[in-house]
Amino acid sequence: GRRLSVGSLGPEDAPLRVLFFHGSMAAMKQFFPLVEELSKGCGAPEGEAVSFHAYDALGCGTSPRPYDEALYAPDELEEDAHAFFLHASSGARRVVVIGHSYGCSVVLTLLSRLRSSPP
């Protein structure tokens, strides 16, 4: 697989995971102020640990920026999103996904894929 920049906040084994998918030409850092606010109390049951996870898609933020345009094909980016989801949600009891702009399309494609073939 490809190596992408990933950021996490909260316990690694939290039963509730919140995953963020940014839009095109954006970066995970756009979610940092939101994560800061949500980490103060995001409606999780009292005492339930929550962790927050985001990644920089290929060519965005601090992830690599290769010059081969074929690496930016939608199916390649969707595969990255799937791999990120599987990694960040592994062992979670509940997962919340949040997409912004193009990230919404990525999330819809991801959810469709997960529905047709669950992990």
Strand order of the largest sheet: 1-3-2-4
What proportion of the residues is helical, as a percent range? 25-40%
Largest sheet: 4 strands, mixed
Q: Which blocks of ≥5 consecutive residues have pLDDT under 50?
A: none
Terminal Cα span: 17 Å
Please outline what is shown here.
The chain has 119 residues and is α/β, with parallel strands linked by helices.
Keywords:
4-stranded mixed β-sheet; 119 residues; alpha/beta
Characterization of this structure:
- The chain has 119 residues and is of the alpha/beta class.
- The chain is 32% helix and 18% strand.
- The chain is built from 3 helices and 4 strands.
- A 4-stranded mixed beta sheet has the order 1-3-2-4.
- Helix 1 links the parallel strand 2 (16-21) and strand 3 (50-55).
Write the layout of secondary structure elements.
Layout: E1 6-9, E2 16-21, H1 32-38, E3 50-55, H2 74-89, E4 94-99, H3 102-116
Parallel strand pairs: 2-3, 2-4
Antiparallel strand pairs: 1-3
